[in-house]
């Protein structure tokens, strides 16, 4: 993989998205094995890590992270963390303990929202923008506990500790890389204050016309990839996995109305053009099968499009859940082609 890119896969959900809203029955042992297989495929094909989701209906992300650590050599779990689920001291202690026992880093994907029903059911009814104020207070406390080598005191609006000494002590190189997903002003401001990677859901590349590359090349982007040797092969796989689905479209429309997430509403407004063979494809999103756009096509087509996002400063890339090892293999081919494209562009720049 490209050395200066951090590419994360996504760990399968313990309870997949289901438009019927009925509980999907999954055998725990089967899911355990699926987590192991996905983690091993991610590592074999050169990924940095794997995102682990968090919401009320899913298995605990930290338990899943331990499974990933126990069955890989260097893959980094990227665990979604919402302050509603765990106290900041308990989180810092968990991260430090994992570092102590496994000698491995765990990254954090901070989330302030999620499903509204999940938040309300847990007594979290804080307005959207204020949840980011709360998240900043929480994340600052966790960061301080992990980095301070002496007694730590934090006096915030929402969280306070006094004279806490974090043990076991975490080595500096094990301090988590922090990411925040979101496009709202509140989300972006929080990422800026924390020094976290700003992760956005990719819009069509034309939407970025006139935008200067991030000077730090420290942005993140999320999408799925379906790539094969030829465009025809890729679209055959894509349409088989994500056929037209009227119930899915209705579920998506209902979810959009109920959500207070800016990124969800922004993507929903985009022209789908799902019947055309555009590399940028929104049908899985518009039929409530995934929560991100897809890039579909031959290795060269997808790589050409992806290289444009990287050139804008998107160096942390989170891919959607992949269904089989073949998907990982073809994604690796795409990223190897991206590297060749960027090398050519660099040579032109200095020619």
Mean pLDDT: 88
Order of helices and strands: EHEHEHEHHEEEHEEHHHEHEHEH
Largest sheet: 8 strands, parallel, barrel
The geometry reads as globular
Find the count of extended strands (DSSP E, 2+ residues).
12
Based on secondary structure, the structural category is: alpha/beta
Spatial gap, N to C terminus = 25 Å
Share of β-strand residues? 15-25%
Placed side by side, the strands forming the largest sheet appear as 1-2-3-4-7-8-9-12
- Provide a count of the helices: 12
Q: Share of helix among residues?
A: 40-55%
What low-confidence regions span 5 or more consecutive residues with pLDDT below 50?
A: none
State the assembly state of the protein chains.
single chain
CA-atom Rg in angstroms: 20 Å
Task: Give a topology summary.
Blueprint: E1 6-10, H1 28-44, E2 49-52, H2 61-70, E3 76-81, H3 88-102, E4 107-110, H4 116-121, H5 128-147, E5 152-155, E6 160-164, E7 178-181, H6 185-194, E8 197-201, E9 219-228, H7 231-241, H8 246-258, H9 262-269, E10 280-281, H10 283-286, E11 294-298, H11 299-311, E12 314-319, H12 325-350
Parallel strand pairs: 1-2, 1-12, 2-3, 3-4, 4-7, 7-8, 8-9, 9-11, 9-12
Antiparallel strand pairs: 5-6, 10-11
Helix pairs in contact: 3-5, 5-6, 11-12
């Amino acid at each position: 993989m490209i050395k200066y890119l951090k590419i994360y896969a996504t760990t399968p959900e313990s309870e997949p998205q289901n438009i019927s809203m009925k509980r999907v029955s999954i055998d725990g042992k089967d899911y355990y094995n699926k987590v192991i297989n996905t983690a091993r495929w991610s590592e074999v094909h050169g990924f940095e890590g794997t995102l682990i989701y968090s919401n009320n209906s899913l298995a605990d992300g930290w338990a899943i992270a331990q499974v990933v650590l126990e069955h890989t050599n260097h893959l980094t779990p990227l665990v979604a963390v919402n302050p509603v689920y765990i106290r900041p001291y308990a989180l810092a202690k968990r991260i430090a303990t994992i570092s102590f026992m496994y000698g491995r880093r765990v990254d954090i994907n901070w989330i302030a929202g999620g499903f509204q029903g999940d938040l309300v059911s847990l007594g979290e009814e804080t307005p959207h923008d204020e949840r980011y104020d709360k998240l900043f207070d929480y994340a600052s406390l966790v960061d301080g506990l992990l980095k301070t080598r002496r007694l730590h005191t934090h006096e915030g609006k929402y969280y306070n500790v006094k004279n806490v000494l974090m043990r076991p002590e975490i080595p500096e190189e094990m301090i988590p890389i922090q990411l925040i997903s979101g496009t709202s002003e509140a989300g972006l401001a929080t990422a800026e204050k924390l020094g976290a990677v700003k992760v956005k859901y990719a819009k069509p590349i034309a939407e970025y016309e006139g935008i200067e590359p991030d000077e730090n090349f420290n942005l993140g982007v999320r999408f799925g990839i379906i790539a094969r040797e030829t465009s025809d092969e890729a679209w055959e796989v894509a349409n088989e996995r994500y056929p037209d689905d009227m119930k899915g479209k209705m579920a998506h429309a209902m979810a959009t109305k109920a959500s207070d997430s800016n990124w969800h509403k922004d993507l929903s407004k985009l022209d789908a053009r799902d019947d055309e063979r555009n590399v940028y494809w929104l049908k899985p999103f518009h039929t409530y099968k995934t929560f991100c756009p897809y890039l579909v096509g031959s290795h060269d087509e997808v790589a050409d499009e992806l290289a444009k996002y990287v050139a804008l400063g998107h160096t942390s890339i989170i891919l959607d859940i992949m269904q089989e090892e073949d998907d990982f293999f073809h994604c690796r081919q795409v990223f190897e082609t991206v590297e060749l494209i960027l090398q050519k562009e660099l040579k032109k720049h200095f020619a």
